[in-house]
Write a structure and sequence with these properties.
alpha/beta; 5-stranded mixed sheet; GMP Synthetase, Chain A, domain 3; ligase; globular; Rossmann fold
Amino acid sequence: MNLVELLYTSVTKFDNKEAMRYKQNGQWRTISYRQLWDYITQLAAGLYASGVKSGDKVAILSENCPEWVITDFAVLSLGAVSVPIFATLPADQVGFILQNADVTVAVVENTEQLQKIQQVWAQPLERVILLKDRVRSGDGRISTFSDLLAIGSAPTNTAPPIDVNAVSDDQLATIVHTSGTSGLPKGVMLSHRNIVSNVHAALTVLPVEPDDVSLSYLPLSHIFERTVEEYALLSTGATVAYAEGIDNIQENLKEIRPTILVSVPRLLEKVYSGVRAKLEDAPKPIRGMVTKAIQSQKNAGLSFLAADKLVFKKLREGLGGRIRAVVSGGAGLAGEIAHFYIKAGIPVYEGYGMTEAAPVIAANPFGASRPGTVGKPIPGVEVKLAEDGELLVRGPNVMMGYYKQPEETARTLADGWLHTGDIAEILPDGYVRIVDRKKNILVLATGKNVAPFPIENAIALSPYISEAILVGDGLKYVSALIVPDFEALQPMAGELGLSGDPSTWTANPNLRRLMQQEVAKAVGKFAEFEQPKRIALIPNPLTIEGGDITPSLKVRMKVIREKYGHLIEAMYAGTDYIPVSSSEPMPAETTRPTSPAPVAAEAPEDSGHDDTGGAHPGGSTIPPGAIVPGAFDNTQPPQNAAAASDTERAQSYATETAETAVTPAKKRRKAKLLIGAVVLLIVVAGITTAASEGRLQLNPRVAKDANLNGQIAAIGDKNNQISSVNHQIVQNLQQMNNLAGITGQLGTNLKGLKANAQQQGVLLGQLQNLSGKQVNLSQQLRGLSGTLTGDLSKIDANAETENQSIQQMSQSAGQLSTLAAALVQSNQNSATKLAKAKSDADQVASEMP
């Protein structure tokens, strides 16, 4: 069976059922299976009239939309080859794919994509077709989608009707270019058989029903989305709705309310990180209950009820409320995240594959998902491990080869097995666990091997970190490049003292300390040699446009090393880095200078010094002006207390007062202050009175040349200064009095909070009582169940006894019946004999005289 035949089977079976849903002018519109087929036949006729023939290469450069799918099937029906191109790629990468795949016709979404083509237009490209915009250039080589539909539906159309059986199963269907994380993309050749076999096998593991609805948001240019959403779902009669874009995904989920969601881990990670961030701000009792519920293996109890009400229910509603399966692929998903969604009532089924395998190799079976694994190989696919742990694959889904690259094909398909390049483990029950990409494994100078993926994944789970990239191949210890999640940090900008362009935030000491704490918390569960000792912050998000990541969101390590190699060098040279361990001081910073004297730093393990005592590049000392541990502690007093403003002193006093508002120590301090003030006033008043009464004796020996007027004037000035100081003291006392008033209010507020806490305690107590009652009822029910079971057992035993008695009676009846029959026979014999005797007797009587 070819791909066109696969769809046509659904068309004949489901006819007017809804196949697609898309939004136009703010309204959702639908396309039935029959309408979809009509569009495909019309476009195929239009392409045929434009010169497209079997074997031609036709590129599709567009975001997801019904026209994408219609174009793909129309091209396939002609025996031509689809060449998908990610709509986010820049012009130079688009040009490479066009030339590498020998594309003759390019179907593009709009004039924006057309401009990319025009920048790189070269042979053998002959024609461009616009899906949505109109032609304004006057270039005869450019036509529109609607033009081709008109040609295909016109009475003058001479194209032969689609023969769904005309295309061979082994014919080339598509050339899909790999992401090219370490070099130029390679064109993967997939046949109709490769993809159809993959669809059939995958649907046995994760079945789809005709009433299922899926929201498509991943690019159809990715073979994972294309195989699942376009081929597999439409082959079952399901409905596919196309999201308006990633920015509208939340709104579209609530509108469509899908039952199936095909996703990549990044979306699931972002939602999970958001939940964790909100939990951090929740009251400690709530945070503790929800955390306990997430970590528990049971979906019961008070903690689970609270977590379901506060978190899980909202999460299900956010996904539309009808999700029965989330299919995750394209990259590894942390087991912690999968477990969280399953706990929330949202089953996540992680799979594994690659473009070269069309793409699914393994998947978690429906109803038997095991977080932390990628499931079992799908039917028809064989897997085994090479000596170095690389996963090898063989099956009908494995590619035909790389387009125009026979040497690379031979290397990847050596010995008849697809060499995946992934290090894996195959568990005894057949489940597969992917360790990491073979080329990503870090081999340290100490001989230890480190798989970056689990560590990077753990770090990226922080709600404040977008990406984590481990480095350290050939070096003594592991370090990491960290990309902060600048969007998630926006609400905390004021608290952290962040302002201006986010690209400058990475120099902020508060942000650096936060990143240090988040990384340290994330990597604590790993072996010592696996934990990064130092980190550096990348000041910008990684983007597809910048070449940092692929369209499928994989990090391009080659680009990262070229762009941020200076950060890596600075980390290992000890000139600019953030130590992961809080016991190691920060290197020099200029925002908050401390003592100018240099302080020796404690070097990280395996990084500071070698056995000869010579300094290793990984070692470091803290230069003048370095920040010491605790420098970011806001409770530390300023070094020069006199420099603090009155406002700062008042705020400090208010903070101290609020913290001790209801303690006896606070009352004692306040009393001491009042007593001291009274004593001071008494002393001043006594001195003033004594002076006025003449009891205060001054030195009677006055120099003859003393300038009394000058001295009196000076004394007047001093008195004025004293008055000014006294006035300032009075103001400060007034401020203290005001703060004392605030303290009372704070005390009231604290009492209110205490009352609320007590009320919550009562409610929790009530819930606990209800839970206890529920337990008691369960125990009573269990007892009744036991009694009922015993009674049923007795009834069963009595029934058995009665059954035996009936059998015995039946046997006895049978015996009696036999005896009765024998008796009847005996009576008959006797009657016969009596009759004969009577006959004989009569004869004898007649013969007697």
